[in-house]
Design a protein that fits this description.
Elements (H helix, E strand, L loop, with lengths): L11 E4 L2 H12 L2 E7 L5 E8 L2 E7 L9 H4 L5 E5 L3 H10 L3 E8 L4 E7 L5 E7 L5 H9 L5
Parallel strand pairs: 1-4, 5-8
Antiparallel strand pairs: 2-3, 3-4, 6-7, 7-8
Helix pairs in contact: 1-3
Length: 149
């Protein structure tokens, strides 16, 4: 049996105001628009954005198709991880563009500088960069011992 190998992964986010979301991702996360597909009435079917080496699709919420935005659902259970060279600067830039800070950027026991933001459309983002390459065993050990503070 031949196995199919994935070629990549691209989150598809649904929002209540696609134009505003695209502007936020551009300003707050440095996204670049790659492709735009609109319906005959001008509504955005989807916009493909590039953020670093990754891709992101953004579409207007479409309840009739079950494509719901986080506010409609009461929040998002998904956390999108964005690896960057400088998570502190990216977090500041995103906050200035309208994101809310959920967890400040800080050094973590698993060897990364890491923080969590919520964008103005309800999607959650972790901004992170690896500082120290820990082995799986070192991470498990650090998880078991977490000093106060």
């Amino acid at each position: 049996m031949t196995s199919l190998r994935p070629q990549g992964l691209c989150p598809h986010l649904f929002v209540r105001d696609a134009e505003a979301a695209i502007a936020f991702y551009r300003e707050g996360l440095g996204a670049v628009e790659v492709f735009r597909n609109t319906l005959s009435d001008g509504a955005i079917l989807f916009v493909e954005l590039q953020i670093g080496a990754g891709r992101l699709l953004v579409s207007e919420e479409m309840p009739g198709l079950g494509a719901l935005a986080p506010p409609t659902l009461g929040g998002s259970p998904v956390l999108i991880l964005l690896e960057v060279a400088d998570p502190d600067t990216v977090a500041e830039q995103a906050i200035e563009a309208g994101a809310e800070l959920e967890q400040p950027v800080r050094e973590t026991f698993w060897g990364e500088r890491y923080g969590v933001l919520r964008d103005p459309f309800g999607h959650r983002w972790a901004v992170t960069t690896a500082r120290e390459q820990l082995t799986p065993g070192e991470i498990v050990q650090a998880t078991a011992y977490r000093p106060e503070g």
